[in-house]
Amino acid sequence: MISIVTPVYNEEGNVVYFHDEVTKVMKELAMDYEIIYVNDGSRDRTDELIHQLADRDPHVRALTFARNFGHQIAITCGMDFAKGDAVITMDGDMQHPPALIPKLIEKWQEGYDIVQTIRTATEDAGFLKKITSSGYYAVINSISTTRVVPGGSDFRLMDRKALNTFLKFREHSRFIRGIVGGLGFRQTSIEFEAPARHAGVSKFSMKKMIHFAMDGIITNSTIPLRISFYIGLLSAFAGFLLILHVLYCVITGQAVPGWATMTILISIFGSLNLMCLGILGEYIGHVFEETRNRPLYWLSDDSAAHEDNPYYKTHSNGNPR
Questions:
Q1: Percent of the chain residues topping a pLDDT of 90
Q2: What pTM did the predictor assign?
Q3: Which of 43, 100, 145, 272 is most buried by a 10 A CB count?
């Protein structure tokens, strides 16, 4: 069985067309399937339309958030409720082509646990967006221990055992591409060119994209905190050199009265402040890692997780809700 998880937000112009296209593809595959729509607090007719689809199509499940929680949370919600042996996540604006679904399933049947799509280009993407996107991936991969594939999208297939592991990651600030990239398992990718939206405009405003980018950096690396400590050390070294210069000026009689004292004090306390902030940053980084409450480990063979495991006694199916 295949579960297709689709978050929707103000997609009244797309959702019915998207549903028809996905249904055509799944009927040709002759596989059991379900389509889970997660309404992320839409303010148009999206909620009404997905419930109409659920009423007339037994393959459809419609979930509605009480308010807008965000794209990444909506994807996670759909995964929580998915029953399939494999789960495909994709957006409902037709920029994730349903025609690629058979290729994803084919790779899964070859034995891959995660099949990631790589967006090589987007028809309606501007020059600025392309440049900022490539720059962002370069930055995040330079500071993160988990590689995030440039052009990677949230259009992917995950086998049930990989999904069960993913669902143990319950942090609120979510960057799913980073989490999936660090899961391991057998992964492969498929490249595609994203078409223009079928209808409407992108719901990712500049503000949302910046927040999403920051979540990706903060949830994947504590290096920005560590950088503050290194800056403190460099400042301390620069302060020491400045103090030597000040003493030289005093000895040679070039210093204005009071200038040497103030300069030395500022150098000492400024360096100490930056070093202390860096040390505090290290502790905050460790606290941050612990409060995410990620699993200490996971097994590549999900069948090895049985009732003798205390984690699975606490969570009956291995998936904390």
A1: 40
A2: 0.73
A3: 100
* R_g of the chain computed on alpha carbons: 26
Task: Give the residue extent of every domain in the chain.
Answer: 2-220, 222-321
Sole residue written with tokens 């055992």: 161
The alpha carbon of residue 151 and the mean position of all alpha carbons in its chain are separated, in whole angstroms, by 13
285: three-class secondary structure by DSSP: helix
**Surface-to-core class of residue 8, CB atoms within 10 Å of its CB (0-12 exposed, 13-18 middle, 19+ buried):** buried
Minimum mean pLDDT range among 141-150, 207-216, 228-237:
207-216
Tell how strand 152-159 and strand 86-89 pair up. Answer: antiparallel
| Fold designation for 2-220 | Spore Coat Polysaccharide Biosynthesis Protein SpsA; Chain A (3.90.550)
In 3-state terms, what secondary structure has residue 181? helix
* Residue 189 clears pLDDT 80, i.e. is over it: yes
**Strand partners of residue 189:** 116
192 DSSP β-pair partners:
119
